[in-house]
Each structure stands twice: as C-alpha cells, then as structure tokens.
Amino acid sequence: MSTATLISTTEFCTWHQVEHTFIHSLSEAGLIEITLIDQDEFIHETQLQRLEKMVRLHHELEINLAGIEAITHLLDRVEAMHQEMRLLKNRLRLYERD
Questions:
Q1: How much is the mean pLDDT over the chain?
Q2: What dihedral angle (degrees, nearest 10) is formed by the CA atoms of 14, 7, 21, 71?
Q3: Which of 26, 39, 88, 90 could form a disulfide with 31 if both were Cys (CB 3.0 to 4.6 A apart)?
C-alpha cells in the first residue's frame, strides 16, 4: 500500500481538532481502520469522507460514540437499499422494453 494514499492520524487530529482517543474509539468500534506503519498510524484516504462526517456529528451535534455507531449503521443500510433499488430499476427497464 502506498503512503501517498494514507493520511497521518496525527495530522488529521490536528487539522480537525480532535483527540487521538476519539479516532482510536472509532477504530475499536469497527467504524474506521487504522494502518500502522513504522510506529505511525494512518487512515486510508477512502475513509476520509466517512471519518470527517463522524467528526462533524461528534462536534456539531454532540453525538457520542454509541450514537455515531447507530447513525453510521443506519446510513450504511440506507445506501445499500439505494443501490438495490437502482439495480432493480435497471432490471425492470429490461422487461419494460419488451
């Protein structure tokens, strides 16, 4: 894995003004993955948008870790249902053309 696609947790915490413990709590809850390279912790850039959303929930709405877990789970389910609906609509279009 290239380090160009990784973001240091220290830089992220400094930039977003969050504690390292918050990032570790999200990792322990299975909401994000932390990559360890030479004693430094990194977050993959594909997780950045999701992580920033969780930080906003925590800071702006003062939602605790359990609430963030519940919200993230529900948002993931909604996204999965949207994907399934798109798939079903595409399948339906095939039958409507006949």
A1: 91
A2: 110
A3: 26
